[in-house]
Amino acid sequence: MTLIEVKNVSKQFGGLAALTDVSFVLNKGEILGLIGPNGAGKTTMFNIVNGFYPPTKGDVFLKGQRVSHLKPHTLCKLGVARTFQVVRPLQRMTTLDNVITSAFIRTKSKSHAEEIAIEILKFTGLYDDRMVISKGLPLGKRKRLEIARALATHPEILLLDESFAGLNPTEINDQIQIVKKIRTEKEITILIIEHHMKVIMSISDRIVVLNYGQKIAEGTPAEIGHNPIVIEAYLGEEHSA
Amino acid sequence: MKKFLPLIIFAILCFVPFVGLSTYVMHILILVLMWSVIGMAWNVLGGYTGQVSFGHAAFFGFGAYTGGILYQHLGISAWWGLPACVVILTALSLVIGYICLRLRGAYFALATLALGEVCRVAAENLVEFTQGNMGIMLRERTWVDKTWYFYVILIIAASTYMLIKLVMESKLGYYFVAIREDQDAAESLGINTTFYKTISLCLSGVLTGVAGAFYMNYMGYIDPATVFPLSEVSIAVVMVVMVGGAATFWGPIVGALIMVFLAEVIRSLPHIGAAHQTIFGIILILIIMFLPNGVVGDFGKLIKPFVGRRTSS
Ligand SMILES: Nc1ncnc2c1ncn2[C@@H]1O[C@H](COP(=O)(O)OP(=O)(O)O)[C@@H](O)[C@H]1O
Ligand SMILES: [Mg+2]
Questions:
Q1: What's the gap in Å between A150 CA and the centre of ligand 2?
Q2: What per-residue confidence (pLDDT) applies to B312?
Q3: Helix H segments across A50-91?
Q4: Same domain, yes or no: A201 and A99
Q5: Domain residue limits, chain B
Q6: Does A44 contact ligand 1 (Cβ within 6 A)?
Q7: Taking each helix axis from N to C terminus, what angle separates B56-74 and B23-42, rounded to the nearest 10 degrees?
Q8: Helical (H) or strand (E) element with B260
Q9: Measuring CA to CA, which residue among A51, A3, A5, A44 is closest to residue A156?
Q10: DSSP assignment of A125-138, as one string?
Q11: Going along chain B, which residue ranges are E strands?
């Protein structure tokens, strides 16, 4: 079953074409990887799916309903949650209060919101840090708090933007376990942006590759790994870097 | 103990009129309570929701004129201004919110500042309605004594305190703070930021208006310059909250206490006359430099020189 369909989406920022005629679908239950060199338009795609920007051309559909004109808070109520590449915790709130705030989307009662938040904090391994002011958390935990906050809104679809960037190998392994658990235990469909090739190859069911705002390939990790166009896009980046 | 502190203070204040304080001291106490209400109201929007307004005189003046105009044109008691201003101020807040809340940060502050001034100029010029600079005078006062005015504003202040406490511990309060901390993140977490900012503005506006309606009844005379002023209301309330401590329950109350007393002291000093504005300015700068979170917010820092030695040695 198709949850999200991105159809011929283009996005212009002034003269810059951040996305050009991109289409793909996200099916229920899968983990879909979105990769591409820096500046390829991945975050912009999230911002469009999540409602921060309207697309310049094309449309986004959620279970068949056109959602490209909706605001982020409406999309969140409809079950689309996201994390930010540059973490944006509610700085002067505790970890617990951050997650409680998100949980309030499905309940009016504070004690119920707190119950949901505590369950999520245990799920993401942040329970011991619940009283820490979120500004004071180390980066690895702030990245995880981004995920916890998104989960507390009880989403059907989770958009993860580089949740692994800047983490050390142990933290990366923990994070991989959490992402896998989100799918198996919470049955949430995941669209994930990731730079780390090993991570993306090991957790994605399918991968979409963007380069200069265009979709250059789509397929299973094995297919993508052998695709000459993809290899060139990445080699090109390494050569120029 | 800490939980009962508000109750204890309320009980003590209830007995204050029996002590036989002078009319002057009662007047000062009434002003402190009134400024606490305005400060608490501003704090909802500026402190907790992070939308700093320099135009709260608009709400204060509208509240005052609601009572005044009911008296002047309908011949009913100006006390009807208290309930009536809830409706009027909600409407005004919706209009101001529609104009200003799409702006962020400094642009919001500037827009509210401009609107406050627009209200003053309008009140000066809509002579048929407001009597312009002649002002509105209540020909008969409800009470000669200050005691009942004191109780009225005490009840208003206590209710405001409880209402805000209730709000801040609920979903609404969490959403206000989330908007202050990061509006885009709040939006993506399912918070309709425009809607909740409007709620915050309405709450803040109505409570400020109630204080204004009380002021009309208490002083018995208003004109545009006294209820719509930029420095004596719009900026004064920012100072009250900054000095006391923004986004704290007690900050506006402590700030009101300090600022009202300070104003009286400075005014009574000989030979300084108009310089009291300058002194206020200097005090504000010092507070922002040394106590950026206000007296309540930086209380730990304030008492550290006295208790620090014991704990460190
Ligand atoms: N709000 C914006 N305004 C102008 N340009 C933007 C904006 N957001 C992204 N861009 C540009 O769009 C391109 C794609 O950016 P982005 O989607 O962040 O790439 P990625 O996440 O794949 O690294 C970049 O050239 C970036 O500078
Ligand atoms: Mg990006």
A1: 18
A2: 39
A3: 72-77
A4: no
A5: 5-229
A6: yes
A7: 120
A8: helix B251-268
A9: A3
A10: T-GGGTTSBGGGS-
A11: 136-137, 221-222
Residue whose CB lies within 8 A of the most ligand 1 atoms, among A6, A11, A16, for a mutation test: A16
**Beta-strand runs (E) in chain A:** 2-13, 16-27, 31-35, 57-62, 65-66, 80-82, 157-161, 189-193, 206-211, 214-219
Could you report the per-residue pLDDT of B194-241, keeping only the tens digit for each?
999 999 999 999 999 999 999 999 999 999 999 999 888 998 999 999
Asked whether residue A4 is assigned to any structural domain, the reply reads no
Together in a domain, A166 and A188:
yes
Q: Are residues A200 and A228 in the same domain?
A: yes
Classify residue A187 by its DSSP letter: -
The candidate with the shortest Cα–Cα distance to A220, out of A200, A236, A235, is A200
Q: Are residues A221 and A121 in the same domain?
A: no
CA B298/CA B253 separation, integer angstroms: 15
What is the number of structural domains in chain A?
2
Q: What's the token pair of residue B215?
A: 């002021």
How many CA atoms lie within 13 Å of B307's alpha carbon, on the beta-carbon side? 6
* Exposed / middle / buried, residue B271 (Cβ in 10 Å: 0-12, 13-18, 19+): exposed
- Which of B165, B171, B174, B189 would best serve as a mutation to test chain A binding (most A beta carbons within 10 A)? B189
List for chain A the helix, strand, coil content (%; round to 5). 45, 25, 30
Calpha distance A86→A84 (Å, rounded): 5
Domain boundary among A154, A176, A209: A154
DSSP A94: B
CA dihedral B221, B222, B225, B227 (to 10 degrees): 130
* Residue B122: C-alpha distances to residues A34, B87, B127, B201 (Å): 57, 20, 9, 21
Neighbours of B305 (CB within 10 A): 8
Model confidence pLDDT, tens digit, residues B79-125:
999 999 999 999 999 999 998 998 988 999 999 999 999 999 999 99
State pLDDT tens for residues B244-255.
Answer: 999 999 999 999
Q: What is the domain extent for residue A112? A: 80-154
User: Considering the entire predicted model, what is its pTM?
Assistant: 0.92
* A145 & A223 share domain: no
A172/A75 same-domain check: yes
B257-282 pLDDT, tens digit per residue, is 999 998 888 878 777 767 777 887 88
| Residue nearest atom 25 in ligand 1 by C-alpha distance | A39
Place of tokens 């979709």: A215
